[in-house]
Amino acid sequence: MQRLQAFKYELIPTGDEQRQMRRFAGSCRVVFNEALALQKKRYERGEKRLGYAGLCKELTAWRNGAPLPSGRTAAWLADAPVHPLQQTLEDLERAYANFFAKHADFPRFKKKGQRDSFRYPDPKQIKLDQANSRIFLPKLGWLRYRNSREVLGTVKNVTVSLNAGKWFISIQTERHVAEPVPPASSMVGIDRGIIRFATLSDGRFIEPLNSFKKHQQRLARYQRAMSRKQKFSHNGKKARARVQKIHIRIANARRDFLHKASTATGHAAGHVSQNHAIVCLEDLPVRNMSQSAAGTTEKPGRNVRAKSGLNKSILDQGGFEFRRPLDYKLAWNGGWLVAVPPQYTSRTCPCCGHVSADNRKTQARFACVECGFADNADLVGAINILSRGMHMLRDEGQDTADASAGWDTTARIACEVSGAVMPPAAGTRRSDLGAAQCRPLAS
């Protein structure tokens, strides 16, 4: 099978190379904004939106001195490489496609200093010299980079980006690997939370990192200092750089933790993506969970301060960013990720199937009012997530006989340990996972 993988490195540019890269990133930003403005004007006039080919013709005219939609001319666009400018137009087309597919908001104009980047799509123009830790890019020449690991595969494209004053290069490659074989015919359910970052259905769990919480006080102090500086002054720029540095440290620590947690190297939870063929993960609506409780002037919210702290804790876990690497790492190892609706997973007894809000009167403890089964609430949620994922696979015709046997054994042991007298529910009916309103599991 063919595997696409990106390798990211920090560049070591000279002063002249940094100035050139800033010019190229600025040219791409101008092309994106002008193309977006052109599309908006055509829409206001009732004209059809231009496609990628039509925008490329406009770009050629702009590079030859034709006026931009804003009225100015930008003949200096000819100094930038044409392929990154064309890739910017492709990014705009993708943004429109995501908007019409309701996957993202309407495209917005780019601001200077925010996510500055440009991409080279033609591998024939790129030369990689790993032995000497350098790479050749059109109109930039040979650039040195910190060669921290070997680039595997054939280079497909290269993206240059600026982040907090440092330049990085991401090299996407393609290579053929052997068809992955699932490591074992096992399934595991994962429940995510705040006190415990992830709890596995076999009883193991991963402690949270809370990278934002660790730097929150220092970040607030530097932000207060930045607010007292005059905007765009020299001291203001230095204060902004200090704040950016803390944000980058928080993001890097969180990203490193999530990558390790998805593989779980060195964690108590073992190798999640390497030792399990199927991982069932609850599909949490993080955006809805972290909405503000402030309300409106007419109807102000309640417990706004407490909800604000809870929202920070939810976002500090990086819920979706944990799911993304876990998904492709499982695919690399021949596994499969199953997204399970989270409704009623924390209120359903895994022993008898009874559903009640009284089963979980506290955040950490689950105690069934019907059969007496008691255990950690996160562990109960993980077991229920595993059960629902198994039901979903059954509906799709997957072979989960071994997993079913393992689930029945887990439920039986859970009841025996808790001292419950009722046997585990046989023939438990699945919830209507395809409906908008998910019904709880029932015996």
Explained architecture:
There is one protein chain. With 443 residues, this protein is α+β, with helices and mostly antiparallel strands. The chain has eleven helices and 14 strands. It starts with a strand and ends in a 25-residue tail after the last helix.
Secondary structure layout:
Blueprint: E1 2-10, H1 15-44, H2 52-63, H3 82-100, E2 117-120, E3 127-129, E4 134-137, E5 141-144, E6 154-163, E7 166-176, E8 187-192, E9 198-200, E10 205-206, H4 211-227, H5 234-263, H6 272-275, E11 278-282, H7 286-289, H8 304-316, H9 319-332, E12 336-340, E13 365-367, E14 374-376, H10 377-395, H11 401-418
Helix pairs in contact: 1-3, 2-3, 4-5, 5-9, 10-11
List keywords for this structure.
about 450 residues, 5-stranded mixed beta sheet, 4-stranded antiparallel beta sheet, 14 strands, about 15% strand, disordered C terminus
Distance between the termini: 43 Å
Number of strands: 14
Extract low-pLDDT stretches. Answer: 265-269, 399-443
Strand order of the largest sheet: 10-9-8-11-12
Largest sheet: 5 strands, mixed
Brief synopsis:
The protein is of the alpha+beta class and 443 residues long.
